[in-house]
Amino acid sequence: MKNNYDVLIIGGGFAGATTAWHLANHGLKVLLIDSKPWNRIGDKPCGDAVSKEHFDNLGMPYPEGEQLEQKIEGIKLYSPDMKTEWTVKGEGFEINAPAYTQRLLKEASNRGVEVLDMTTAMKPIFEDGFVKGAILFDRRHNQQIEVRAKVVVEATGYSMSFRSKLPQGLPVTENLDDKDADIAYREVAYTKDDIDEPQYLKIFVNQKASPGGYWWYFPKGKNKVNIGLGIQGGMGYPSIYTFYDKYLNEFGSDVDRNRLIVKGGALVPTRRPISTLAWNGILVVGDSAFTANPVHGGGKGSAMISGYCAAKAILNAFEVGDFSAKTLWSANLCYIERYGAKQASLELFRRFLQKLSDDDINYGMRKKVIKEEDLLEASAKGDLQLSVAEKAMRIIAGLGRPSLLMKLKVVAEYMKKAKDLYREYPSDPNDLEQWKSEVNKLLLDFENLMNK
Fold it and tell me: DSSP character for 168?
């Protein structure tokens, strides 16, 4: 069985569904496939929180009805010793991810996108240096399908199951270093009592209970919670389930595990985006493109941005009738402007935070060597900028730990360098390798300074 489409989207999670939603009703023949059955599409172990600004900036509909489980007003961040509590304001939603994703797919389907569940991309069709489709397997009908497409969108998440089968050496086959990922586990369960202040997400930073990551407690209404943790990968730590079982009562003593709704684990990329989202006949979006926020690991908003940018690049490619990397390259420029430059700078902030001890974090938060405003500024813009007066106050506060103060100065300087370098992202695919070497040098220089 052979089929021809304009666009093939592999994966129906947040990134794939957003791409399809933006492509719908533009006269293109689009097929989206997902390996899960329909009622599980969009189900991924994560915190399920999304900032309101992403919906506003991308013209996406707000979650409503069963899709919306809790409106969020901000985040409460706790020091390891639990003696310091910060509140960072910001509107958002705690969502039912499958319900919202399936809504996007239904709306896209109503506007002409074909959706196949229980369908897997077995291998790419790669000819003359271009991705030209995929060999699919439809489990529902037990049949193999050859699908040809002008553009394939790789949205397979952290498995990277499609692009990993392309010829190695293509820029879009870039691998993920284990240390640049968090291993995450979460459970959604009812609570024994009603939750105090369900409008606030809670994050607990504790290198003992979640080394290189954090615990989260995200209310989904007055008596239901998404609770879990992430730990840095590639460090030889014990199983994440060991940490979860050992420390659950410290961060979720009210969780009723006898009324468990769902549980699961996942790998979360916590680094700069993939060097290019685009190559000949292919675009990579979402977790497969390493679009998650490096500091807090949230990936749904940035996945939506990558899907939006991919759709824009595809529509432009069909206008000019060219599906090469050169034409699809605009997806990179769009994503870097909207999120990628900030994301690259936040990778450095993440590396800095992961090297701090619990004592450093307790001291830094208590003395306000690092402040709530810093986190808000870093999260919103990827900046860590201090005025002369502010620097003087930080120096006084940081006298007890001069090494912490010096590292904070270095990270602020290199975060700016990273943003500047990403703002100089090459406009031509031929210049990619030279630019990548500059990025790698910056990361190496930063690591050397952090390790002094």
Answer: B
pLDDT tens by residue, the chain, 452 residues: 569 999 999 999 999 999 999 999 999 999 999 999 999 999 988 899 999 999 999 999 999 999 999 999 999 999 999 999 988 888 999 999 999 999 999 999 999 999 999 999 999 999 999 999 999 999 999 999 999 999 999 999 999 999 999 999 999 999 999 999 999 999 999 999 999 999 999 999 999 999 999 999 999 999 999 999 999 999 999 999 999 999 999 999 999 999 999 999 999 999 999 999 999 999 999 999 999 999 888 999 999 999 999 999 999 999 999 999 999 999 999 999 999 999 999 999 999 989 999 998 898 888 876 666 666 566 556 555 544 444 444 544 544 666 777 788 888 899 999 999 999 999 999 999 999 999 999 999 999 999 88
User: CA-CA distance, 395 to 408, in Å (whole number)?
Assistant: 11
How far apart CA 410 and CA 333 sit, in angstroms, is 27
User: What 3-state class would DSSP assign to 399?
Assistant: helix
- Count CA atoms within 13 Å of residue 266 on its CB side: 24
| Buried-state track 48-81, b at ≥16 Cβ within 10 A, e below 16 | bbbbeebbeebebeebeeebbbbebebbebbbbe
Question: How far are the Cα atoms of 236, 262, 304, 315, 371 from residue 31, in angstroms, in the given order?
Answer: 41, 30, 18, 15, 47
- Tokens representing 352 are 């800095």
pTM above 0.85, yes or no: yes
Query: Which pair of tokens denotes residue 99?
Result: 């319900």
In the numeric block, which tokens belong to residue 7?
A: 């666009």
CA atoms within 13 A of residue 172's CA, in its CB half-sphere: 30
Enumerate the H helices of 289-387 as residue ranges.
300-320, 325-328, 330-335, 341-354, 358-366, 372-381
Cβ-contact 10, 152 below 8 angstroms? yes
SS3 (DSSP) at 428: coil
Say if CB 78 and CB 216 are below 8 A apart. no
- Paired with 217 in beta bridges are 202, 227
- Type of residue at 313: A
Rg, the chain, Cα only: 22
| d(C-alpha 195, C-alpha 199), whole Å | 10
Q: In the chain, how many H helices and how many E strands? A: 13, 16
* Residue pair 100/108 in contact by the 8 Å Cβ criterion: no
Distance CA 94, CA 72 (A): 7
Distance of alpha carbon 318 from alpha carbon 150, whole angstroms: 9
Residues in the chain: 452
